[in-house]
Design goal:
The chain has helices spanning 15-23, 27-53, 63-69, 75-86, 94-110, 119-138, 154-180, 185-199, 203-217, 226-251, 255-263, 268-283, 285-298, 310-317, 327-357; one strand at 308-309. It is mostly helical. It folds into two domains: 89-147; 151-357, MetI-like (MetI-like fold, Orthogonal Bundle), CATH 1.10.3720. It is globular, with a radius of gyration of 26 Å. It is found in: Cell inner membrane; Cell membrane.
Length: 361
C-alpha cells in the first residue's frame, strides 16, 4: 500500500515562540508589551521598596520610627496581630481559637485527598472537623471554660461562618435543585418561587432581617443566638444560588441516562446519588468553586449586624490613636489572609477540573 502524504507535521510551539507570537508579533504589539512589562516592573519595585527594603518590622517601633524609615510599618501587625486574628476572644483562651482555625484548615486539606471523595467519608471528615472547631471555640466541656458567641471574632469567626454556611447550604441547595426539577408542578413552582425570591434580595438585607427583624416577629422559644440566625440566612442565600448552579449542571446530563436507569429498575435515590448528581457537579464545578469563593469573601458583611469578624477586627487594630497612621499595612495583611484562602480554593478547583477531565477518581 502507498502511504498517504498528509503534509508536514506541525512543530510544537516552544515557550519562546509562544511569547514572541503573543507579545511581539508586530511593532505595535511589541511597543505595548514593553510598556506594560516596564510598568509592571516599576510597580513591583515600588512595592518591594515600600514593603520590604524600607519597611519597619520591630515590635517596639512607633509612628516616628516608621515615618523616618519611609516604608511600611509592619510594627502594627507585630503588636496587634492577636486582635486581628482572634478579635474579642479572651486573651488567656486564644490558643483554643488558634487550634480551632487549624482544625478547619486541616479539614479543608483532608477534603482534597481523593481517597476521601465518597459521601460517607467526606461527611465524616467535615462532621469531625466542625465538631472539633465548635468544641474548642465554645467550650463548656472537657474542662474548657465556656466562651459565649458574642466574644468570638477575627479569623476564627470568619471561618466559622463560612464553613457553617457551606455545611448547611450545600445539602439545602441539592434539595432545592431536586425539588425544582420535580415532575409535580406545584412542588417545582413553589420551590422556584422561593429560590427566585431569595436571589432577588441582597445578602445584607437577609442578614439584617435574620439578626434584627426576626426577634420581633418570632416567639422566644424559636429564636437562638444572633450568630446562628445570621448563619441560617447566609446558608439560605448560598443555597438559592447554588441550587441554580446544580440545576444547570443537571440539565447538562443526557435524559437518556435517567430513562435507561429507570428501565433497569434502579430506585430513584440511587439514580440521583450515583448517576445524576455526580455528573451535575462535574458540569457545574467551575461555578461551584466560584460560589464558594464569593461566600468566603461575603463573610465580611456580617459586620453590619454587629459581629467582630476578620475585617472588623482589622479596623479595630488601627482604631487607636497610636496606630491610626498604619491602616494601609493592616488592610494589606488582611488582604493577604483573604488571598491565601481564596487562591487556595481557586487552585483546588483547577486541580479538580484537570483531574475530572482525565477521568480520574
Amino acid at each position: 500500500m502507498t502511504a498517504i502524504d498528509t503534509g508536514p507535521v506541525p512543530l510544537r510551539a516552544t515557550p519562546l515562540g509562544r511569547i514572541r507570537k503573543d507579545y511581539f508579533s508586530s511593532p505595535l504589539s511589541t511597543a505595548v508589551s514593553l510598556l506594560c512589562f516596564g510598568l509592571l516592573l516599576w510597580i513591583g519595585w515600588v512595592l518591594l521598596d515600600w514593603g520590604v527594603l524600607r519597611a519597619t518590622f520591630s515590635a517596639e517601633a512607633r509612628q516616628a520610627e516608621c515615618r523616618a524609615a519611609g516604608g511600611a510599618c509592619w510594627s502594627v501587625i507585630a503588636n496587634r496581630w492577636r486582635l486581628i486574628l482572634f478579635g474579642l476572644y479572651p486573651y488567656e483562651e486564644q490558643w483554643r481559637s488558634a487550634l480551632a482555625c487549624i482544625a478547619v484548615i486541616a479539614t479543608m486539606v483532608l477534603s482534597c485527598i481523593p481517597f476521601l471523595w465518597t459521601g460517607k467519608r467526606i461527611a465524616s471528615v467535615w462532621a469531625l472537623g466542625f465538631a472539633t472547631f465548635y468544641l474548642l471555640m465554645k467550650g463548656g466541656l472537657l474542662g474548657l471554660p465556656l466562651v459565649r458567641e458574642e466574644q468570638w471574632g477575627g479569623l476564627a469567626l470568619t471561618l466559622f461562618i463560612f464553613t457553617a454556611t457551606a455545611i448547611i447550604g450545600m445539602p439545602l441547595a441539592i434539595a432545592f435543585a431536586l425539588l425544582r426539577n420535580s415532575t409535580l408542578p406545584w412542588i417545582a413552582r413553589t420551590t422556584g418561587a422561593v429560590i427566585d425570591a431569595v436571589r432577588s434580595l441582597p445578602l445584607i438585607s437577609i442578614l439584617f432581617t435574620c439578626a434584627i427583624v426576626l426577634p420581633f416577629v418570632l416567639p422566644d422559644f424559636v429564636l437562638q443566638e444572633k450568630l446562628y440566625r445570621v448563619i441560617a440566612g447566609s446558608a439560605l442565600f448560598f443555597a438559592a444560588y447554588q441550587a441554580e448552579i446544580i440545576r444547570g449542571g443537571m440539565q447538562g446530563v443526557a435524559k437518556g441516562q435517567d430513562e435507561a436507569a429507570m428501565s433497569l429498575g434502579i430506585p430513584y435515590r440511587h439514580r440521583v446519588a450515583r448517576i445524576l448528581l455526580p455528573q451535575a457537579f462535574r458540569n457545574a464545578l467551575p461555578a461551584t468553586i466560584n460560589q464558594f469563593v464569593i461566600t468566603f469573601m461575603e463573610t465580611s458583611l456580617v459586620v453590619v449586624v454587629g459581629f467582630f469578624e476578620l475585617l472588623s477586627s482589622a479596623n479595630a487594630a488601627f482604631g487607636t490613636s497610636e496606630w491610626t497612621f498604619a491602616f494601609v499595612e493592616v488592610y494589606v495583611f488582611v488582604a493577604f489572609l483573604y488571598f491565601i484562602f481564596v487562591f487556595g480554593l481557586s487552585r483546588y478547583g483547577a486541580f479538580l477540573e484537570r483531574r475530572m477531565a482525565t477521568g480520574q477518581r
